[in-house]
Amino acid sequence: MEDLISAVNQILDILKGNNLSFITSIIFALVPILLTVISIILSVRMDMQNKTLQKMIADRDSRNQTRQIILEIYNAYFTGFRITSQAKDNIEDIFISEQSYYKWATDLETAYNSIAQMYNQAKLLIRDNEFIVSLKKAFESFGALYHSVEQYIATGIPSQMINNAWQKICTEHQIFYGNYYFLLQNRSLYEEFRKLCKTTYTDEIQKNLRNYMDIVDTNEFDDQFKKYISIQQL
């Protein structure tokens, strides 16, 4: 009996030893698989994080690009405002000499082309109907001003009015034709000269000028830009 028990115990010991080896073998076999799975999970997680980060960077770059475009658009419209403000309430001062009205017309043309370019760019890149409508209204208003000046100069009337004004001033006050220095030294004479250069065309130009300024010189117009260039959006 004792021999049998001893033999059984030996068999059990062998089985136990075999089981341990088997389990150990399984563990060693599973370790590379587990490491591979862990590596894949970490790789997927890092890839997702990288994609998220790349999207955040792309969104930030897109916002910065949009912000830069908005600033350029605003600058174009503000330049138009600055040029029109030169003649606010004194359009006749622009049309008292060919040099002054030709220079102003050139500045208007440059501003008009810049505003047109920025407006068209905004229509292509910005999906904001309220913003585009606001830009369009200001663009068309500035266009009306620019074209009214262009057409008035093309008639030749400004040059004719200046010539007639000098003829009258020279005859009545005995001064040399084209002596602007003397004219500017005499306020009453200067005002008389300005009135002689005034026409219904200059009244129309003044009206168009005010219309543009009334559109862009408002909080409503500025607010259309502020929602894009706010520092919090960077």
Chart the SSEs and their pairings.
Blueprint: H1 2-85, H2 91-94, H3 98-125, H4 129-155, H5 157-173, H6 180-185, H7 187-196, H8 200-216, H9 219-229
Describe this structure in words.
- This protein has 234 residues and is mostly helical.
- Helix content is 87%, strand content 0%.
- The chain has nine helices and no strands.
- Helix 1 runs antiparallel to helix 3, helix 1 (2-85) runs antiparallel to helix 8 (200-216) and helix 3 runs antiparallel to helix 4.
- It is rod-shaped, with a radius of gyration of 41 Å.
- The protein starts with a helix and ends in a 5-residue tail after the last helix.
- The relative contact order is 0.10.
- The mean pLDDT is 82.
The structural class is mainly alpha
Radius of gyration: 41 Å
Largest sheet: none
- Fraction of residues in H or I helices: over 70%
What's a quick, concise take on this entry?
The protein is mostly helical and 234 residues long. Helix content is 87%, strand content 0%.
Identify the notable features of this structure and list them briefly.
234 residues, mainly alpha, rod-shaped
